[in-house]
């Protein structure tokens, strides 16, 4: 009887430990991808702030700072990205434990491509793309946004299934991200990972934590890696070499189960917080979106002239401003409001009311509070767009708030605009953030 009770206790303890450790592994793998996604998004910033290479007679192949640029003879303006891509590749190597096979940025019509490291067959890929821009096919295959506005509503990055690379015949796992210029796709940033990256993370975790998890394509706990096209699972075999040793500690482990579960739930929340501001991020909102009530309002905020602030005072000051702004908005928000750092210098506040007067007054209060509260010794202002929803989709409500935000920018910034049916038609054709 004692053995049976011990066996039952052991089985329960083992299950508790497996769930806890599996959740830790799940979060570690997810965080690895989220960190790589965040680092890859720096390519967008580098692209937006790059100067064009002034030499009109570029050689077909040029290497600098460990990065190789390949151009086609008919190329137009080529952005200067050697140093930026080299630094981003170093960060990706660190975050992937040196499992990053390649970082590249390929112009969509094959006019140029940056590669680090470079291999001869990349020139053939670029030439093929120049002859037939549709030959790449990645945007359509992985349902990536081809317009900037569309990328705001869904994941702007996709991770592929494991596949065999056509030229090298190596097994790869790739991350794709479109780069926009004037709201249209201009280029594609690509990170190629070694195909065993996820399996490597599991092996490393097993070694460090004395566990025996394995990767599966059909059974176990779903990894739910953000923005990936295939589902992977992790599971533990029914019997492991340490099973009988753990039996001796079953009673002690059972008393710690509550503490372990508390740690598990804390770890679970890491993936849905913005690291810089501590606010919920867009991934959190995408999971929360389905539970939005029918009646709500959207307040979309964008910091005025934030690029100029970054350029003049540096990115450290820019980060402090983002953190300070998040604190101000939090103080202005109510307990049941939903505040999200939407991306870059944009913040989204969802109010659970469709009363446009209430929403507009709240937005004006936030705008005025920000304008009157110095952050890091600087006066900051925001432009705000407001839209209310009753029965329509969130996507449409968000688009209306974004149009109203553009109107605020067009009218001189530092103001609140409520979306009305004629708001979009009154916008100048060249208005942008």
From TrEMBL:
Keywords linked to the UniProt accession: GTP-binding, Membrane, Nucleotide-binding, Transmembrane, Transmembrane helix
EC number(s) given by UniProt: 2.7.7.65
GO biological process: cell adhesion involved in single-species biofilm formation; negative regulation of bacterial-type flagellum-dependent cell motility
Domain GGDEF: residue ranges: 294-421
Sequence intervals crossing the membrane: 244-265
Recorded superkingdom: Bacteria
Main enzyme class: transferase
Cofactor: Mg(2+)
Reactions catalysed: 2 GTP = 3',3'-c-di-GMP + 2 diphosphate
Full protein name: diguanylate cyclase
High-level lineage: Bacteria, Pseudomonadati, Pseudomonadota, Gammaproteobacteria, Enterobacterales
